[in-house]
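Let us begin with a simple case.
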Amino acid sequence: MHNTSTKSLLKQFIALAIPTLLSGWVYTLYTFVDGIFIGRYLGAESLAALNLLVPLLYVPYAVSLMIGVGGATLIARLSGEGRFDEARRVFTQALWTMLAIGIGLSVVVLTNTSKIAEMMGATGHLAILVEDYLRAYAWFILFAQALYALEFFLRTEGTKAATFGLYAMLLGAFVNVVLDYYFIVVLPLGMQGAGLATGISMLVSSFTMLSYHVFKAKNIKPCWNAFKDGSNVGTILYNGSSEFLGAIAAVVTIFVFNRLVLNTYGESGLAAYAILEYMTLAATVTMVGLVQSMQPMISFYRGANQPRAMHVVFAFGATSVMAVAVIIAVVMCVFSRQLTFLFLPDGGSAWEILAPVIIWYALAFLPAGCNLIAAGYLTAVERPGASAIIAILRSWVLLLGSLWLLNTYLGGKTIWYALLITELLTLAASGWLIWRYQREGRPTPSSHMIHG
């Protein structure tokens, strides 16, 4: 990362972005495949049951983002400063932290399966489907949690390692498709089979990525006595706190959405909302992937005291994210009907619910892209507090507040406007936080780069 001409920075950004995006798309692909297998072979009720579980499935993802982003940001800065021994200790401490949290989460889920199903709003046969999935998936929570963090750590090792992360994700995706077919269609194990297929595929990808750090990595690899000079766990968790808050807020948001949709539309509404989530997943993964590609470069050049390089990288990240936001908005509006019937061939009732609301979800991606850029930049320059404000506003505060106001005063069918309203209001706060950081005299993106 030492050559800082604009052309070389663009090459570095692309070299990081391609494997990062491909990994995200592979993850999206096998998430899509899960939904297609469940919708087509197990039916709309099983798809609704899976959507009730989504809030819980976000918890290990949120922890993985916190440790991955928080640890990788610190590792990238230490690497930029040439302090590789410290970077290795931070990496090893992150591994021990993931192990402890992962085991703890598995124990909690396995010992409270029925209570969790009830808490998610599942009753009757829907509760049985939820519990079947949970009992199989819970054994693999450690690997679900490790998956994304390990991919972040591979990026700090370099482009070859980041490319290896893509291969590991592809391997997991292939395993997931094969096991989905075998467990759901051939055996058939129903929702239990779906949970097993997802868990085993994540185990395969996680072990493959960890093996690179152990056997191939030159700089970022596990070490003995990682805690001998003190702990960086608090710094790791704090640096990744905004990503954690943003992801864990999805737990609350989807939980609230599920309840409101269930009350307004019934189980067919839950299936429709599940399809909408699948549609938005690809867009979110792409934009977040571009932001995450820019973050380690900004952290590195900050450690190397090269503000111009930071500005150029920011311009690449911001431009690409906004281009994707526009493309995704158009694609969602044009192809939403085909996607609906891909999941549910007899999904006429689901399409009736989705048709009038797709455009509001699509438009929300435009301000959302700006908010992701701002939050990602602030995290990369180790200002997690400011980044956390953006995450809290666009989830805990404004989104839940908008949902409550719309549902209470205008009726349940207006809840679909909440996302666009939230992102527009958050955009004002994002602009102010970037402006305030610039006023402090820190190396921030210049105004001409922010606007174009």
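The second case is a distinct protein. As before, the sequence precedes its structure tokens.
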Amino acid sequence: MGTRAVELRGAGGTPVTATLELPPGRPAASAVLVSCFACLGASAGTARLCHALVSRGFAVLRLDFTAAPNADGTEGRLDTVPSVDAVVEAAAWLRERYPPARLLVGHSLGGTAAAAALPRLPEVAALALVNTPAGPEPLLERLEPAAREAKQGEVVLGPGRLRLTRGFLQDIDAANVARALGGFPGSVLALHAPEDRYVGLEHARRLLSAARRPASLLMLEGADHFLSREADAVFAADLLGPWAARWVTPVRERETPLPPGVVEVHEAGEGRFAQDIRVGTHRLRSDEPLRVGGDDTGPTPYGLLLAALGACTAMTLRMYAAQKGWPLEHVHVQLSHDKVHAKDCAECETKEGRVDQLKRSVKVSGPLTQEQRAKLLVMADRCPVHRTLESEVDVRTVLED
């Protein structure tokens, strides 16, 4: 996956900076993600939602309407002025270079702007809204009295800020948003946190009731407005990704699967270590944990190695028990990896330095005899991945042009 900045033009030609996220290979569909996540600075929301789409083959152009605070806690520079024009311009930019934007994803006021833009974007097939107000009312309430009277000014969201203009507030008027949704023939999904302190749950219900076709509401229990907790951001992404793939053609249906035994790994382009992995028709992500400079967006390479051994072990036991007609009900495998001193490894030929040690604990459930359990333990060492790890492996590397 690649990442780069994109310069757009919003209302009145105002510059808008967006970020483009690309999957490996040619994307089959595009999406525009409009959010107000930057209020919190390093929010997990943007990264998780983007990855949920990019991993399914979407090119994602994302723009944030808010200004994040500086590292020292001072107010950040507010360059972007929210506008429906910016959403339309983002879709137009994608249309000229990539497949048209078939999906709009909007968080907070970005979702309201995305909904208002629908009549100007006939190519859009699906709209996902995250903690989105049905109109500007929740933000107008947060303006200073004079600014509220003038219907323009800056509003504080968390530690960040958002600049509102009279024209933008008119564009996202509740009546305009309702009309836009009423004329939209595509699918609508609302993800909403019932405990959202900025936008009440009634806004999600108003948005869905205005939709032309049946729409879905999924609750983000325990989440805040910004999806600031990692677990909440992951949950929202896990809901968004499959839904988007259901309503917008994903890349996996268009590209040729890799041949059996072939794996492709590409640098993800985000963070220091993240890698996008393609296996057949499947896509995976590998990364390093935060403590070593990664973003923890996927298991580590050693985590994938242990997963391969564990999966192979469970499959081997299942296949062997089925052949024997044994009443094996469930297999659970737990693994760990460590570096140990060679002199402490009684079964290792190497006696100097440190060696890799993989520990595997196998639990089998069912009315099995002790003899059957003992045989299954023996079979665990005969799974193909186990044999590969213990055999002499010839790795040949070539450098391609």
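The first strand starts at residue 2 and ends at 9. Residues 69-78, 250-254 have pLDDT under 50 and may be disordered.
Keep these points in mind for the review questions at the end of the chapter.
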